[in-house]
Amino acid sequence: MLGAIVYLIRGAGVGFVLAREGGLSFIDPTELPPHLRFALKLGRMLERPGLGAGAGPLQRALTRLGPSYVKFGQFLATRPDIVGMNAALDLEKLQDRVPPFPQEQAIRVVEAAFGKPIRELFLSFSEPVAAASIAQVHKAHILDANGVERVLAVKIMRPGVRERFQRDLQVMRFMARVVHALSPKAERLRPRDVVEILARSVMMEMDFRLEAAAMSELAQNTKDDADFRVPKPEWELTARDVLSSEWIEGIRLNDRAAIVAAGHDPKALGLAVIQSFLRQAIRDGFFHADMHPGNLFVDASGTLVAVDFGIMGRLGMMERRFLAEILLGFILRDYKRVAQVHFEAGYVPAHHSVEDFAQAIRAIGEPIHQRRADEISMAKVLTLLFDITALFDMSTRTELVMLQKTMVVVEGVARSLDPQLDMWTGAEPVVRSWIARNLGPLGRIEGAGRAVLTLSDVVTDLPDLAQRLRRILVRLDESGTGDRKALESIARKERRRALWSTAALWAIAVGALVMAFR
Predict the structure, then answer these.
(1) Which of 81, 241, 290, 308 is labelled catalytic?
(2) Model confidence over 195-226: pLDDT tens digits?
(3) Which chain regions cross the lipid bilayer (predicted)?
(4) pTM (two decimals)
(5) Are residues 338 and 264 in the same domain?
(6) End position of a domain, from candidates 61, 80, 96
């Protein structure tokens, strides 16, 4: 009870700051029940006068509330389905920049992580070169095993940030429960789930070993891509609170003038941005979900380099097929196929009509074919698509919304380099290649092979399951709780069932192979 009172007071403080800075202006009162409309009206009366200039209201409010809320705002910027596109665009501009913590503290964190003095770990260790709410970055030099001097970026956790975030997280959980209690309709947006997703995301971001693993996985996936690369983590100098990786010398993608002056082709870089992102999402199912210009560089060779892997997205095979077929369907104007993909994936309930859904999608697709390709926003098409699906009871898919929001950012970066970029022509080779590889004859054979392996695992486990059942029956018999003849009959039936199950599974496996080779 006391805890609830504390959370209520803290939550009221958060609400006051939001109201004072104009953060409630994004809420549409027509969507609220009468009692919440009245509360919103009272809250709007607290707004400070003269809020029109400068940063957006949500930026101001969350910056005042502190690092945890800045991080929450950045997370919500990837969820326009929850906060609306206008609020998401405001949150997108949140600057996660705070004063650095002292060099002495940074050195203590590093020495505690590795149990050695800083001079034994690095030849040199600079003052911080960048600082954010969770960590700051230093430049360091080391000698590798071959005696070659290398430059590293050393990211160090801000002391006390975990405790601060956990405290603020409890308030966010409480406020999510309050929102649900006051407006049950809000459950469609799953506020409690959103807070838990944020908690998992940030807690993973606060373990630099996991970020190093994400960096390593993305590097492995993209090792054969000529136009994109990822810095290598330095595993021996990485721990929970310290991440060391290759230092990147390059030009940020938001400095187009410097890119041109260095002799790089901005149009080729714009195409590389969109195709790299789509390869990660569709081909690999693992993508960098924070590809804003500050996290993208072009190196001396003209290669695109990404940094900061705290926020990553994953797509399963079904979601990748969903995305690829939707993009290709819009490119080919095959709206019936786009609709069918939604139903096959189970995203739209079966009681709706495929034809009606295809008609709604046509309302999105046809206008784009009346315009020049460089005027069409792929991200806007997906945004409109998700708006339409809400009319057909499509539940929120977190991974798809994160993908859509990342695409908004990626498209903006690509078009800042090449305003005439044809996004659809750029996307088509990646989409067609994936569909041909995974949904063509070779993909069907590989899918059948995976099915056979799964079935063989099940078959292999059947004898063990039968033995365990026999041991259970023996123990029951010894305890006197079962009739011996009845138990033996059950055991015989289970053995026969296991034999027939094995035969059936192998028949299914053979059938799958035959169908795959037709």
Answers:
(1) 290
(2) 777 777 777 788 999 999 999 999 999 999 99
(3) 498-517
(4) 0.72
(5) yes
(6) 96
